Amino acid sequence: MPVKNLTFPGSKTPEMIVNSIKLTEWKLSISDPENFDLIVIYRGLHCPICSKYLQEFDKNFDEFQKLGTNLIAISTDNEERAIKSFKDWKLEKLNLGYNLDQKTAIEWGLYLSKGIPNPSLTIAEPEFFVEPGIFLVDTDKRLYFSNIQSMPFTRPPVRELLSGVKFAIDKKYPARGTLKYLK
Asked: What share of the chain is helix, strand, coil (3-state, %, to 5)?
């Protein structure tokens, strides 16, 4: 069955509940940001691109907070791998969610990959993992923005995301891409 995005801009998002390294349980429905929740989906500990990308989010964490945007990065990794990512990648502020299940990943329209043996990797891929995605969710738990990828490379620059969030807030810019069909 092909994966398709079941979350449409302007529509209510599915629930997302994960364990996290800073909270026993992180739950989207009880997150209470001033403006947005920014959910960054990453591939996991084995991904060197994720390391650099999450370091950028960590470095800009306070800027997102100033814009009333809660930030969490989530993977299918288990607790041990999430904690190792946090420590090895020298993250300080970013909360890492772990144990994202396949059902929730599919509900959010994310792509899943099967781990493959790769001798060039210093850390083995897990049995399955999720490919990158970014979701900006408003205070009504409606999808404002999404970026879903099937490969690890070419992700939206963090500073551009930050300026986009600022623009959306300052201009009260509505969610775009909300038309399901043109007549």
From this structure: 25, 25, 50
Would you say how long the chain is, in residues?
Answer: 183
SS3 call for 12 = strand
Q: What is the DSSP string of 127-166?
A: SEEEPPEEEEEETTSBEEEEEE-SSSS-PPPHHHHHHHHH
pTM equals 0.94
CATH of domain 37-170: 3.40.30.10
What is the domain partition of the chain in residue ranges?
Answer: 37-170
Tell me if 64 sits within 8 A of 165, measured CB to CB.
Answer: yes
DSSP, res 26: E
Compute the distance between CA of residue 76 and CA of residue 44 in angstroms, rounded to an integer.
7
Write the pLDDT tens digit of every residue in 88-129: 999 999 999 999 999 999 999 999 999 998 888 788 999 999
What residue ranges of the chain have pLDDT lower than 70?
1-6, 181-183
Burial 18-35 (b: 16+ CB within 10 A, else e): bbbbeeeebebeebebeb
